[in-house]
Amino acid sequence: MRVSAHLFVIEARIVLAVGALWSQVPASASDATRPTPASTNCFSLEHVNRIVQLSDPQLAPDGRSIVVVVQRAEADTNQWARQLVLVDIATGKHRPLTQDRKKVGHPRWSPTGDRLAFLAPHGTGKDAADQVFVLPMNGGEAQQITKSPTSVQQFSWRPDGKEIAFTAADEAPNKKEIEKGEDAFEVGNDDMFTKEAPMPVHL
Question: Which of 45, 69, 70, 167 has the fewest CB atoms within 10 Å, i.e. is most exposed?
Answer without folding.
Answer: 45
